[in-house]
Amino acid sequence: MKFSEMPYTRPDIDTIEQRSMDCLERFKAAKTADEALAAFTEFAQITSDVDTVFSIAYVRNTIDTRDEFYDGEINYLDEVSPKFEEISQKFNEAMLESPFRPQLEEKLGKLMFINGEIRKKTFSPELIEDMQAENKLCTEYGKLLASAQIPFEGENRTLSQMSPFKQVPDDEERLAAWKAEASFYVENGQRLDEIYHELVQLRDKMAKKLGYENYITLGYYRMMRNSYDANDVDRFRKAVIKYLVPVATRLYKEQAERIGASFPLNFSDMALSFRSGNPRPKGTPDDILAHGKQFYHELSPETKEFIDFMFENELFDVLSRPGKSGGGYCTSFPEYKSPFIFANFNGTQHDVEVMTHEAGHAFAAYQARDIFPLELQSPSLESCEVHSMSMEFFAWPWQEGWFGDQTEKFYYSHLAGALEFIPYGTMVDHFQHIVYEKPQMTPAERHDTWRELLGIYMPWVALGDEIPFYGEGKGWQRQSHIYERPFYYIDYCLAQTVALQFWAAMQRDRKDAWERYMKFVSLAGTRTFTELVAAAGLDSPFGDDALHTVANTAVEWLNNVDMTNIK
What we know:
Blueprint: H1 13-29, H2 33-63, H3 68-97, H4 101-108, H5 110-120, H6 128-146, E1 150-152, E2 155-157, H7 159-162, H8 171-187, H9 189-209, H10 215-222, H11 230-259, H12 267-270, H13 285-299, H14 301-312, E3 316-319, E4 329-333, E5 338-345, H15 349-367, H16 381-394, H17 400-403, H18 407-437, H19 443-457, H20 480-484, H21 490-508, H22 510-522, H23 529-535, H24 546-559
Parallel strand pairs: 3-5
Antiparallel strand pairs: 1-2, 4-5
Helix pairs in contact: 1-2, 1-3, 2-3, 3-5, 3-6, 6-9, 9-10, 11-18, 11-24, 13-14, 13-15, 15-16, 16-21, 18-19, 18-21, 18-24, 21-22, 21-24
């Protein structure tokens, strides 16, 4: 079914609760494992229905945040989603306590019950009002950023529409674009500080209600960390500082030499990789989509079937326009077994990376669409990011169709960018650990903390008053995950470490690398992150050598690039 034809009806929480409680009573009264499984299957259908209408409303709201109908629906869903979580938790607890748990584990897999034990630790009915307040604040943050109308070169532009200007080769124009964008954040800085402060206080209060010292423990449980903990992440952060920060520093020094800029770089100069300009895809958005279709047609029979399904059912919205939320994401409509890709094309190489990244998510969702139950269709989020980040690298042999004579420039930019990203992403995670360890910090103290972390993780950045907001150490406010999905950022760094291993495997044997990727994807949510990595024959990011090895392999490749014609 085409996305435009998918019906939306506001879910009646009272009806949902009644149907769910009927299922729960039958589950508890079951005399056999089969009877219990039948009751669970019926509840799983209710969950699928609810997830589908929630996703439809979310997508239509983010496509146009000014649409009053879906704005109202999101406000309603923000209110009722914690109530459905309460219903879901009751069924979860019954599953965990069932006398038929051994038989159910045999049918559904043990991981579902391991995850269920984690979910149990994230909720209590006394959190419902706090969760509703949290939802409202996150929605307000998203709407605030989507409302941006930044005057620049004779037009009002959204944050996404500013991106191309922040990368132009002309130094004065590029700097002006950075300053113009920064002015939006400066004007809204007080409210951004207030929203985040309220979120931190709320989350800390929720954690303490559940008996935790602070939100970090609850945050990890909410992220369904089922194969590693905060100590593992701390070890990974230290490895990033030891191995990746020096590599990224060297890459940025070379960039400064290429573009004739002083080092450390200001944010504007950091955005320009080459004096002649960053690689830009040729053609229109339709051309980018058309070549994306060709890429997936030629990659494998499975990806051909997937991309045809996506186009036939119009499961894309990729053009940037006023009122549209920023960024990109992939979601799914379980009832229609359909993924959906949301993006904001803006004429930069990011358009192609979105076409490969978000479609990597969508492909994995499509491959898992028939797995039962729904919870096992998707693994934990760092594993999902392996799907997407690795797909970006599998697209390399097709990049010429997007970039033409700038293809070599793209290869260099993409691989260097993958290495340079990991310190930034790790810094985002470290920042949140500090914030939630010290929830009473003032907004000014949070900005000070970000500045200090920049010195550790991004020493190639020059701070100062040349570019307001960014140069003042407030740039974290533009990172939506910090507000909306706490601790969902180290996932990208862990995934990038695995994706770089897939990239290295491609250099040796593309066919073997693809088969291992398909193994990773096909297991969907039936294994933990570390189990999926092992199943693909790769090294855990938490090991001593993984980060060091992939960094060395990538740097060796970059060192061998002939830069004669890449200026």
